[in-house]
């Protein structure tokens, strides 16, 4: 599995999380990923495979969509309402 050393957010992501009171859950999921515990967050590549878009679970309803940049950091660009 890929090693994640840092996770960054694009503009608007934290505003979305705060509006829905998801900030603490998001930070916990982020800590799991950085620690290498990808199973707890169901970190996986989205279909179609090879698209370069990955997701991880914040809670049962919300997923963070992200991509890797050239230095290997994870960039969260959107929060998906998975309902």
Describe the overall structure.
The protein is α+β, with helices and mostly antiparallel strands. The chain has a single domain, classed as RelE-like (YaeB-like fold, 2-Layer Sandwich). It is built from 3 helices and 5 strands. A 5-stranded mixed beta sheet has the order 1-5-4-3-2. The longest helix has 12 residues, at 23-34. It is globular, with a radius of gyration of 12 Å.
Which features would summarize this protein structure in a list?
alpha+beta, 3 helices, 29% strand, globular
- Domain count: the total is 1
The beta-strand count equals: 5
User: What would the average pLDDT be, to the nearest integer?
Assistant: 93
Strand order within the widest beta sheet? 1-5-4-3-2
How many helices does DSSP assign? 3
Judging by the overall fold, what is the CATH architecture?
2-Layer Sandwich
- In the CATH hierarchy, what is the class? Alpha Beta
What is the multimeric organization of the chains shown?
A: single chain
How does the overall form come out from the CA principal axes? globular
Instruction: Report on the biggest sheet.
Output: 5 strands, mixed
Strand content: 25-35%
Structural classification: alpha+beta
Q: Low-confidence parts lasting 5 or more residues at pLDDT below 50?
A: none
**SSE pattern:** EHHHEEEE
Q: Supply the CATH superfamily name.
A: RelE-like
Helix content: 25-40%
CATH fold-type name: YaeB-like fold
